[in-house]
Design goal:
CATH superfamily of the largest domain: GntR ligand-binding domain-like
Structural class: mainly alpha
Number of strands: 2
Shape: globular
Radius of gyration: 19 Å
Largest sheet: 2 strands, antiparallel
CATH architecture of the largest domain: Up-down Bundle
Strand order of the largest sheet: 1-2
Order of helices and strands: HHHEEHHHHHHH
Oligomer: single chain
């Protein structure tokens, strides 16, 4: 008896580069508004400029990078007005996705989200923000997928990309991070009981709280700069 050898395609080089560059933008290692220096990044990531430029284009399509004529690429930096408008849309999208997910989620999908929640809580206990945020993002995407509305999922991904870095930084305040964790526990409860109305309200309040934290951080940063 022989085992069939199945070829598993690897990610293209530019996709691998994008995977490494994405957390640098989300976690603020490349600051909002900072120019992406191709020479430095090529050396840091040990790749030529061609796959790096393709990766930057990918991240621009996701909303993490802005391409400026004759100036190259910069990490996206949102104004307070941008933040208000984007979180307003995101709250509506997450609320709708959450309500549909509570109605349509399968036992297997719920079990997977519950397992991710357990992993996320372990990261929270360790105060490992990077791992916590990665799992957190996976949970929100899984909720969106459980809504089983591909149009909603696509729009969700497009809008959420603009907010990834801000959502990451919103957990840097210990008390506010703890509140976000409590809100996630309520989300799991609402999914488990298939309570669509509760799920919509929890997610919308979760996004409003995130928005308020982000605006506080931006205003404090502006005062510090002044």
């Amino acid at each position: 008896m022989t085992a069939e050898v199945i070829s598993i395609p690897r990610l293209a080089l530019h996709e691998q580069v994008a995977q490494r560059l994405r957390p640098m933008l989300v976690e603020g290692r490349i600051a909002p508004g900072a120019k992406l220096n191709e020479r430095e990044l090529s050396g840091l990531l040990k790749v030529s400029r061609t796959p790096l430029r393709e990766a930057i284009k990918m991240l621009a399509a996701e909303g993490l990078v802005e391409l400026l004529p004759n100036r190259g690429a910069i990490a996206v930096s949102l104004t307070e007005e941008d933040v208000r408008h984007t979180f307003e849309v995101m709250a509506g999208l997450e609320g709708q996705a959450g309500e549909l997910a509570a109605q349509r989620i399968t036992p297997e999908e719920l079990a997977e989200i519950q397992a991710m929640q357990f992993e996320m809580m372990a990261a929270f206990t360790r105060r490992d923000l990077s791992t916590y945020y990665g799992i957190n993002a996976r949970i929100h995407r899984a909720i969106s997928a459980a809504a089983k509305n591909p149009v909603l999922s696509q729009v969700y991904e497009q809008v959420n990309a603009r907010l990834q870095a801000l959502r990451f930084r919103s957990n840097q305040d210990g008390e506010k991070w703890k509140r976000a964790v409590k809100e996630h526990e309520k989300m799991i409860e609402a999914l488990a009981t298939h309570d669509g109305a509760a799920m919509r309200e929890i997610l919308q309040q979760h996004l409003r709280n995130k928005r308020d934290v982000v605006l506080e951080q931006m205003q404090a940063s502006s005062r510090g700069a002044a």
